[in-house]
Write a structure and sequence with these properties.
Elements lengths: L1 E7 L5 E7 L6 E6 L7 H12 L2 E6 L15 H11 L4 H14 L5 E6 L1 H12 L5 E5 L16 E6 L7 H10 L6 E6 L16 H18 L1
Length: 223
């Protein structure tokens, strides 16, 4: 069953979330949006994970500024998303993520995020102990968030041609966690930022399929 629900955070903020709960799900999964809101693409991502047997929830992280945001992928959409994101503190956003996780009634919960959500998934894996596995897709802020160890197994997925996350930034992450067996970093040849989004011109089917299978394997092993 899929539906839109309401969550309440520890600071009493009420936000929307998209939930897809298949029958007999064995684990929960939080899906974090790009800077385009919980739009049709993110809902489709949720549905695909639900088809794999996960009880999925995607919190509307823009609700602290404006509700019912669902953007496309044109330059004006990107600028609007960036403007909204800039008005929300990371701490408030993490509170929204925690509320989504606490809604899921399972011993094991995973988290996966894309773009902005990729960075937030990393924060959730290092700044909370709620998650049993995290998959972080092209999170541009991760290189500036290397102060904490991960509390669960983490995958990071980056495009070789992603100008917002150059290879030297990825190498910085590798160096910071070279002795941490919990963090696996993958770089996909000829892939740009957003390579996992079918709605974007940067979609790369080969890179997406490989990153998606690795993500599913991570969750199957740890959830």
């Amino acid at each position: 069953m899929k539906k839109d629900i309401q969550l309440t955070t520890s600071d009493q903020h009420s936000l929307n979330a998209y939930e897809h709960a298949p029958t007999n799900a064995l684990a929960g999964l939080v899906v974090l949006q790009e800077i385009f809101g919980v739009n049709p693409h993110i809902r489709q991502v949720c549905d695909k994970f639900a088809a794999q047997g996960y009880h999925v929830i995607s919190p509307a992280l823009f609700d602290r500024v404006e509700r019912n945001i669902s953007l496309g992928y044109e330059p004006e959409d990107m600028q609007r998303g960036l403007n909204i994101r800039a008005k929300i503190s990371p701490e408030k956003t993490l509170s929204d993520v925690i509320a989504a996780a606490e809604h899921l009634p399972y011993d094991k919960i995973g988290i996966v995020g894309y773009c902005w959500g990729g960075s937030l998934s990393w924060r959730a894996a290092t700044e909370t102990k709620l998650f049993s596995a995290a998959s972080c897709w092209y999170g541009a802020m991760i290189p500036s968030l290397l102060d904490h160890p991960s509390h669960c197994p983490v995958q990071m997925h980056f495009g070789e041609l992603d100008h917002s996350i150059p290879l030297d930034a990825i190498n910085k992450i590798r160096q910071a966690y070279k002795d941490n067996n919990n963090v696996d970093i993958y770089v996909y040849k000829n892939a740009e930022h957003g390579f996992g989004c079918q709605a974007r011109s940067s979609f790369n089917p080969e890179a997406y399929e490989l990153a998606q299978q690795r993500t599913l394997d991570l969750f199957a092993k740890n959830l």
